[in-house]
């Protein structure tokens, strides 16, 4: 398991707003925002920052991150908020039984093309 994850974004303020809006539906909020060595950093989490975005040398590849949700409704709310905040659809909310029968997820692409998911594994 990882302790935290972070990546560079092309538009820091826009990304901070996007993730702030989308992740709030999962109970994840912006906990810290600072500048160090001329690079901006924003850390999101529940009790401590575990998801970081920042400025710096831009990476040329996209990545996939899945955030845990506690219910199907929370996945649905994440998806709606992410789309409203400027995300692009990459797979609307629904069961993905190819993973397992209770896998309920939704996928969006952020402004940098990263595939961001909210997933609930509970049977509802």
Automatic annotation (TrEMBL):
Pfam families: Glyoxalase. SUPFAM superfamilies: Glyoxalase/Bleomycin resistance protein/Dihydroxybiphenyl dioxygenase. Residues 1-121 form the VOC domain. CDD domains: VOC_like. PANTHER family: GLYOXALASE FAMILY PROTEIN (AFU_ORTHOLOGUE AFUA_5G14830). This is VOC family protein. It comes from Devosia algicola.
